[in-house]
Specification:
Elements: E1 2-13, E2 18-24, E3 35-39, E4 45-49, E5 59-65, H1 72-81, E6 85-92, E7 108-114, H2 118-130, E8 136-143, H3 152-161, E9 165-170, E10 180-181, H4 184-191, E11 198-203, H5 206-217, E12 226-227, H6 230-233
Parallel strand pairs: 7-8, 7-11, 8-9, 9-10, 11-12
Antiparallel strand pairs: 1-2, 1-6, 2-5, 3-4, 3-6
Length: 242
C-alpha cells in the first residue's frame, strides 16, 4: 500500500448514521473490492472499503457508519470534514474478482453484504456491470431495520438498469418496510437451495460473515469458493460440537 494525498470533495450524512464521503485521488489504481486506510494525525490507520469502481477514478466513494459520537469512526468523519485534503494508504485486500475466481467459470456469483459492508459489495457489483459480465450475479444486502437502508437513489437506478438481481432484506418487520424481511441467509437459501456451483463474496461484521457462511456451507457452498476480508484478520470461531 502506498501513501497518497486525497482531496476531500464531499461529506454527506445520507441517513441517520451513515456518511457518504467522496475523495479525489490522482495517483491510485485498485481493483473493485479493495480497501484503503485513512491515516489520522495520531498515526492511527482506519480501513474502509472503496465503495466506487476503478472506472470512476479519480473520484472514490466511502460509506462510513458513525453509531457513537465517541467512536473511532466519528473521529475519522470529523477529521475529513475539517480538512481540504487527507492522507490515505491504498490499495489493500485480495477480496476482488481479479483473484482468479472468474477463471473457474462459476455458475453463480453471490454478492452478500451486511450494513456498510454494502460499500465493498456495491463496488464489485458495479464493476461486473461495467465489464458487461454475462453470468448470473445476485446481490443480497441485509440490514436491521428499514431506517438503516441508505443509498436509495443508487438502489433505484440499479433496479432499473442492472442485468443482475438485487435484494434488500430487513431483519425487523415494520409498517415502513414493504420489501423482503427476515434473516439474510434465509433469503439467499430460499432463492438458491443448491450452492455447489456458486461462489460468494461476503462483507460485513465478523459475526455476520461467519454466521452467513456457516448457513451457506450447509447448502453446498465451498469455503474455497468464498471470499471475505474478514478471513485475513479474524479466524473462524470454533463451531459447537454436536
Amino acid at each position: 500500500m502506498k501513501e497518497i494525498t486525497a482531496k476531500v470533495n464531499t461529506v454527506e450524512l445520507i441517513n441517520k448514521d451513515v456518511y457518504q464521503i467522496t475523495l479525489q485521488v490522482d495517483d491510485l489504481e485498485f481493483f473493485a473490492g479493495q480497501y484503503l486506510m485513512v491515516v489520522l494525525p495520531t498515526g492511527e490507520q482506519v480501513p474502509y472499503s472503496i465503495g466506487s469502481t476503478p472506472h470512476e477514478l479519480p473520484n472514490i466513494t466511502l460509506y462510513v457508519l458513525v453509531s457513537d459520537a465517541a467512536s473511532l469512526a466519528s473521529k475519522v468523519v470529523e477529521y475529513i470534514k475539517s480538512n481540504a485534503s487527507i492522507t490515505i494508504k491504498a490499495p489493500g485486500g485480495d477480496c476482488h474478482i481479479h483473484n482468479g475466481v472468474l477463471d473457474s467459470n462459476p455458475e453463480h456469483i453471490l454478492l452478500i453484504a451486511g450494513g456498510t459492508g454494502f460499500s465493498q459489495i456495491k463496488s464489485l457489483y458495479c464493476d461486473l456491470v461495467e465489464q458487461n459480465f454475462t453470468g448470473k450475479v445476485s446481490f443480497y444486502w441485509g440490514l436491521r431495520t428499514a431506517e438503516d437502508v441508505f443509498a436509495k437513489d443508487w438502489l433505484e437506478e440499479a433496479h432499473k438498469y442492472s442485468p443482475f438481481s438485487l435484494d434488500v432484506i430487513v431483519n425487523e418487520q415494520s409498517d415502513q418496510w414493504h420489501g423482503r424481511s427476515g434473516w439474510l441467509y434465509e433469503a439467499i437459501l430460499a432463492d438458491n437451495p443448491d450452492l455447489n456451483q456458486s461462489v460468494a463474496f461476503i462483507s460485513g461484521s465478523v459475526g455476520m460473515v461467519y454466521g452467513t457462511l456457516d448457513q451457506l456451507e450447509l447448502k453446498g457452498l465451498s469455503i474455497d469458493r468464498c471470499f471475505s476480508d474478514v478471513f485475513a484478520y479474524a479466524p473462524h470461531p470454533d463451531k459447537p460440537v454436536l
